[in-house]
Amino acid sequence: MLELFDEDFDAMELAEGALALNQAINPETRVQWAEKELHRLLQEAELSLVHEVDEKQRFDALLRLFYHQWGFSGDREAYFDSANGFIDKVLERRKGIPVSLGALLLYFGRKLGFPLKGVTFPSQFLIKVEWYGEAPQYINPFNGEYVTEHTLGAWLIGHKGPLAKLKPKHLEETDNPTVIGRWLALLKSALLREERYTLALKCTDLALSFVPDDPYEIRDRGYIYQQLDCHQVALTDYQYFIENCPDDPASELLKNQVNAMSGTQVTLH
């Protein structure tokens, strides 16, 4: 099973870690193809930028290459599609969401020597560019456009409410394990929406491998087991949540669910 928080993982590029996560969830993930495609595109980028001398102009050329010539873009039509969280599919479709597009942009940018960092801003993933001696700049990976701190403040208000204020902590670099933890939650939600319960269960098992007693993750696992007709296991997970989170509004609903399920025939798989 993939260890999400070991030192080796944090030493990977985010896109490489995401591929490892993708494969742990779905063994059919085309890891070798994706690695070859990353290498091919990186070589293409090196050749494309070879005549650019000024670092900022080189970076702007990378952005043009990534978003215009290669055609990567945010998936506006199916934002919550699980394909947007699988790196091989993002590479194939040239569509993604901020975290998957950002992981790819980080991969190419850092391999080419640009001072890029990932930021898990409350509303979405960002790329931070830190030129020596200058204030940081921020890029929205969804479309490759620069965003000002004023705009980020507006995003924060839209996300957290009118009293929210932009603080330095919101713009700090994020380590890979934190990003992958959020990526895992995102994939689980997408797979649940698509009723792909077997893959969603793998997401839950991975999450519980590093937070074994998380009652909310156990509650979600119970829901997945219920959909898979594993009622006895689902009952056990629901009861665990009810006992550990008695004041959560969901507990009352789950009590009714447990009572209803207790009267059904138990199916074991």
Automatic annotation (TrEMBL):
Domain of life, per lineage: Bacteria
Residues of the Protein SirB1 N-terminal domain: 33-184
One Pfam assignment: TPR_9
Family: Belongs to the UPF0162 family.
Protein name: Protein SirB1 N-terminal domain-containing protein
Natural source organism: Vibrio hepatarius
